[in-house]
Write a structure and sequence with these properties.
This is Ubiquinone biosynthesis accessory factor UbiK. Required for efficient ubiquinone (coenzyme Q) biosynthesis. UbiK is probably an accessory factor of Ubi enzymes and facilitates ubiquinone biosynthesis by acting as an assembly factor, a targeting factor, or both. InterPro entries: UbiK. The protein is mostly helical. Helices cover 67% and strands 0% of the residues. It is elongated. The termini are far apart.
């Protein structure tokens, strides 16, 4: 018969993991929650983008494109869609009129015979 050694309880680790200081501290020196960190980063990125020339460049490019499109005498999508609807209704009316003319010609031909 074998004797087993007594079972000892597992030792608890004293190792703790901490987030880097730059993740936890704000300019005010207090600990920040993760969502506050994200909000702070978003605010800083937004501020940098506002100060960058990218917005000015984007506005200038849009302006140049609009000027070019105006010279080409293009229409907006909305204007195009309206005209497409008008054309569809006009085609329907034309088909109805052609059908009516064919009927009237048929009646006239029958009357002449």
């Amino acid at each position: 018969m074998r004797h087993h050694a007594p079972v000892r309880p597992a030792r608890r680790s004293t190792l703790t993991v901490q987030a880097p200081r730059w993740c936890e501290e704000s300019k005010r020196g207090r600990l920040m929650k993760p969502n506050e960190i994200l909000q702070d980063m978003q605010a800083k990125v937004s501020e940098l983008l506002k100060q960058s020339p990218a917005k000015d460049i984007e506005r200038n490019v849009k302006s140049l494109l609009n000027q070019g499109f105006n010279r080409l005498d293009l229409v907006t999508r909305e204007e195009f869609d309206v005209q497409a609807q008008v054309l569809a209704r006009t085609r329907e009316k034309l088909e109805a009129l052609e059908k009516r003319v064919a009927e009237l010609e048929g009646l006239r031909n029958e009357a002449q015979d």
